[in-house]
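help with this:

***
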Amino acid sequence: MQARYHFREWGFRNEHGDTVREDQLLTSVPDVLTVCKVYMDCAEQFFKNLQESLSAEFGIGKDFLDTSPMAASVPGPHGEFTQKATLTGFEKELTEAAAEHAGEARNDVQAAEHDFGARRYRDAAENYQKSIEALPTLSADLNLGAARYSLSDLRQAEEAIHTGMQMVRQKRNRDLEASFLTNLGGVYRSQGKLNEALHTYEMAQRIFLELHQQISNLLGQANTLGNLGNLYRDLGKQAQALESHQAALELFVTPENLLGQAQTLTNISLVYVDQGQ
């Protein structure tokens, strides 16, 4: 197996990290082409190390070395030289591509948010989907499911939520996982799957309780409690419905969410009506 050599600091080192003098290097490789390849590899590694050193020592960033070649010559199998993309070239291309896709995704989400706010849910769903195609994000997946749900397109809403759930669990984002579960509970309730909805809301509530220190989580917890209250009312469990809505009201008062308070008070009044009060 051919040994690999790299340039470290101001000398050659082999794959074991041992320093190798240049005269030793020339006698340890089989032919001139391999020597050229070793020098090319070492030079590329040298410039990479130089970039890191300049950045660390003098604050000179990547832009300073943007003139580095995108490709370099490497020896071919028959004594010729061919062109091979450098790691610097690859990193530059990757950065540009990522920035382009991020820009597209951002523009699509901004358009979708405008559509959602204007209750143009179909347009919003299309723009969220375009954003996901440009650059998949948990935020766009969550909002796509919400837009589909607002259209009463329950099948596609459930699909979007399940897709996001797979990603959110891979990334272990507990906050957004609870939000996905809350929306999934709403879909199940609308489908008449009340037991599945109850189980899903309870899972969301447990996660929100774990994360209760943050205001955003308090609101999520309050919303889920309100949804549980509505579900208990559907199931004819008026006492549990009232308890959930009252707990939600206490949380809505904490961040001074007037809209949440108004909706919760309406839900409480409906429970009282059911109880004949």
